[in-house]
Amino acid sequence: MLELRKISKTFNAGTVNEKTALNELSLSLQEGEFVTVIGSNGAGKSTMLNAVAGVFPVDSGSIFIDGTDVTKLAEHKRARYLGRVFQDPMTGTAANMQIEENLALAARRGALRTLKPGIVKKERDLYREQLKILELGLEDRLTTKVGLLSGGQRQALTLLMATLKKPRLLLLDEHTAALDPKTAAKVLEVTDRIIERDHLTTLMITHNMKDAILHGNRLVMMYEGNIIYDVAGEEKKKLKVSDLLQKFEEVSGGSFANDRMILS
Fold first, then answer.
1. What's this model's pTM, rounded to 2 decimal places?
2. N or C: where does the chain have the smaller number of CB atoms within 10 Å of the terminal CB?
């Protein structure tokens, strides 16, 4: 469902600020795989996700989504394959619009715009059913302005919007990092439920090593723009945070330089 073939990306090439963010990175995801991605500061995690999303072109290599070469496809055209949730809960929703209006925008993404009436009863019934999976009571608040919701409620709604049309690939960019631990756990619970229900292929960046172990069926660790550890199945389930720290030190020759991840 996703294949990265030796993709490279260097920022500020030829200057004193030159930084190689991706170094001939290769990665393949099969349909339905849920892969968590961890790594220290500057490992290239977000750069990889942005490269997949088409935020910027890669310097070399190829990107395939569901067998289609999207390497040179613009971000807005690539969006039809993707669902994406960002770190900031305020990013994925329109605060001044109602919950049902936000869902309607997500449901009609990519569809031909017409002059037909706004949201009809059939659509409202569908949105109520979809919102029930969040278990936040939002199915009874369809006309509430999204700006009145908490950060956790908005992020859960964003997740629902990103998956409403069952994307080929779901990208989660530290989507619980800005939430308190209790709310983050709730959003991750909803994430697992939606991914399992719709059998979504998912790439999730997280700064929390425990979350990386607990969620998904595969884990990859990045360092200096490449993948240094890739584990799945029963082997992944048996992992501990100490195992990940040891693996990082073995490969890098140094300690894990990300206090936020270690404290988490």
1. 0.91
2. C
